[in-house]
Amino acid sequence: MEKAYNTMKHVGALNIALGVITIVTGLVVGILMLTAGGRSLKNKRFIVW
Predict the structure, then answer these.
(1) Interacting residues of 40 by C-beta distance below 8 A, sequence separation 6+
(2) pLDDT at site 45
(3) Phi, psi of 25 (to 5 degrees)
(4) How far apart are the first and last CA of the chain?
(5) What's residue 46's pLDDT?
(6) 47 has pLDDT over 80
(7) Residue 20 needs a FRET pair 20 to 30 A away by CA distance; which of 3, 14, 27, 47 works?
(8) Mean pLDDT of the chain
């Protein structure tokens, strides 16, 4: 029974770590998308369709 609890503890810690990494990655990608979009809007007169 103790082995099962230790396994669940490690899996729970891993899930929390992966969740934090996912949130941080999402924030970074969102910020990069916002800056790229702002840069595109700033230079939209140079874009030829």
Answers:
(1) 47
(2) 84
(3) -65, -40
(4) 66
(5) 80
(6) no
(7) 3
(8) 92
Helical ranges in 1-49 per DSSP H:
2-42
The C-alpha R_g of the chain, in whole angstroms, comes to 21
d(CA 49, CA 38): 19
Looking only at Cα atoms, what is the longest distance across the chain?
67
Q: Which of 20, 1, 22, 24 is nearest to 9 (CA)?
A: 1
C-beta neighbour count of 3 within 10 angstroms: 7
Percent pLDDT > 70 in the chain is 100
Give the contacts of 47 (CB within 8 A, at least 6 positions apart). Answer: 40
